[in-house]
Amino acid sequence: MPLTQYIYILTGIIAVIMTVFIIRAFINGKWKLRPSRLSLVAFMVLLLHWGFVLVEVYDLFSVPVGNFLFDFIWLSTAIFCLLAAWKESKNNQAVAWFLGGISVISLLFGFILLGISGME
């Protein structure tokens, strides 16, 4: 089985685990507090990066510069979201699980894109 299929399976498992923990946080009432600003900023930065990827902003640069920018921004936003999820886990567990889950899924798809771009 190719590596990408393992990553897709792992993405599905992470999505299911994330959903279960978010539902548990809602049932236990650990979601009533407003998310911190750091979590909101981290989520917006991640959405902005995904938007840049979808509208192919990184293709406007030369190939080495675009690849460097994509890799650096992708890694830094994923780490930023993981740190925000860790900080948010004390305040609002539902938001923390959501933010951590989408940042891990973003990391997995970034690894897929990194592998695909290396195939020449």
From TrEMBL:
The keyword Transmembrane applies. The chain crosses the membrane at residues 6-26, 38-55, 61-83, 95-116. Keywords: Membrane, Transmembrane, Transmembrane helix. It comes from the Bacteria. The keyword Transmembrane applies. This is Uncharacterized protein. It comes from Oceanobacillus kapialis. The lineage of its organism: Bacteria, Bacillati, Bacillota, Bacilli, Bacillales.
